[in-house]
Amino acid sequence: MASHTTHRAERHRMRLDDHLPVDHRLNTVYRIGAGLMGLFLLAFGILGLTDNIGFFDTGGNTAMGLNTNGALSVLSVCVGLLLFVGMVIGGNFASTLNMTLGILFILSGFLNLSLLDGDYNFLAFKIQNVLFSFVVGVLLMVFGMYGRVGSALPHDNPYWRARHPDAEQRAGAAGDQVR
After folding, report:
1. Per the count of CB atoms within 10 A, which of 24, 151, 161, 174 is most buried?
2. Among candidates 24, 88, 29, 148, which has minimal Cα distance to 80?
3. Domain tally for the chain?
4. Residue range 39-84, pLDDT digits in tens
5. Which range marks the domain in which residue 92 is found?
6. 169 lies in some domain
7. 37, 83 in Cβ contact below 8 A?
8. Does some domain include residue 76?
9. Closest CA to 144 of 159, 133, 162, 131
10. Read out DSSP for 32-90?
11. Quick check: 125 pLDDT over 70?
12. What kind and span of H or E run contains 167?
């Protein structure tokens, strides 16, 4: 008979951005970006829903200069609320959410560009919606990446320090030698 040892599995809460530093000055940028984009999407979605248009109607219903239907309005409200959640939480979560949604908006723009005037255009996109999707995607990515990426980040930037932990130790050692 084989003896088996039972190991108690420990549960660890996994977070994707634990290794990233939190900086309160950059946190403001992430929150503002999420809030502004969320506000616009929420307003667009609510205005689209108040027109009582069909859920998958592909007619010429517009809200704020963009073509819409019930499905696109509901989707806009949901994404707007998600961005508001990101604004409330802030920090690295808001930054990562902005970048992720920015990429999804750009991908949506390409997908819906290929579906224009086709049978599968169930979100009733027109070219202005595609351009809007690209613009919102780029803005969300800029707000999300602000202060996190770049070749000329200042040395007091928390993301630069996180990528160069040995530079801080060398600077401290150099300061000790000068005294």
Report:
1. 161
2. 88
3. 1
4. 999 998 898 888 767 666 667 677 777 888 888 889 999 999 999 9
5. 24-147
6. no
7. yes
8. yes
9. 159
10. HHHHHHHHHHHHHHHHHHHTT--TT--S--EETTEE--HHHHHHHHHHHHHHHHHHHH-
11. yes
12. helix 165-178
